[in-house]
Sequence to fold (313 residues):
Amino acid sequence: MPLAVGPAMSATAFPGDPSLLIARLIADPATLEASLDTATAALEAAGLPLAEAQMLDFCGDVLELELPGDDIGLLRRVIDDYFAPSDAIIATEPFRLPGVFVSDMDSTMIGQECIDELADYAGIKPQIAAITERAMQGELDFESALRERVGLLAGLDESAIGRCLAERIVPMDGARTLVATLKARGCRTVLVTGGFHHFAEPIAEQIGFERVIGNRLAVHQGKLTGGLVGAITGSAAKEAALREELAALGENAVSLATGDGANDIAMLGAATYGIAFRAKPKARAGANGWIDHGDLTSILKLLEIPQHDWVIG
Fold:
């Protein structure tokens, strides 16, 4: 199928059509046309014929596919089979800019897992990192795994947190630009983490988030006690934060969420655009978007925000 180049659909192009699928994706440009040909044949063979394929006209990166039907699972399998690695969002109505962006922190907005890095200052990083990995894969109960890991940090000097922030923690490529650009478009930004306020507050300030939700480490006489203060911020709290922010915006508000682990699945599923960023398999399967190919600025491309309008963070 030849690639057309033209404007994306208007928000009224398919009013109220419940059987429309729209996919936007970024993949290897060198093989894009060949991949599209084989993907088109696969979709037709499966009874999901492709109605239109076009490159968004503001750049040559984003391919938009329009299909009648509602089989999102089939469409994502075809994208994975023929375009991987890719960045993509699959929607059931024309794209709109989000009014709120809620994101996980560790391994999403930053390139590290804070608790694993902090554990290195206690000499137990491998032990804690193994528990973190299993929890993020969905193999362990998040709250139990969190309490176990925090308990292992008992007696560590609180000053290790500041050292860890300065020496280990780095924002993910594109994080500042993503947040700054969305804010410039009137989008509210919220960082919600199963990690800790000790890390989240300075990271949120550095990247530009307006609100922070996370867990609190208990400290006594300058040392971590091995406990937590207050309720746990886990999967349910992340989803609740998204829904609270959406409710404040009113009916028909659009939301964007990003995350990478099992405790992000509910939040990703509740968002209009739930994007799994270099995610664990269960989180990726629970989202309608994913970033496997590029950095966080791919989200701006998929939302059709031209690069000349990006706010470089």
Notes: Confidence is low (pLDDT under 50) at residues 5-17. The longest strand covers residues 211-220. Residues 235-249 form the longest helix (15 residues). The domain at 1-95 is CATH 3.30.70.260 (Alpha-Beta Plaits).
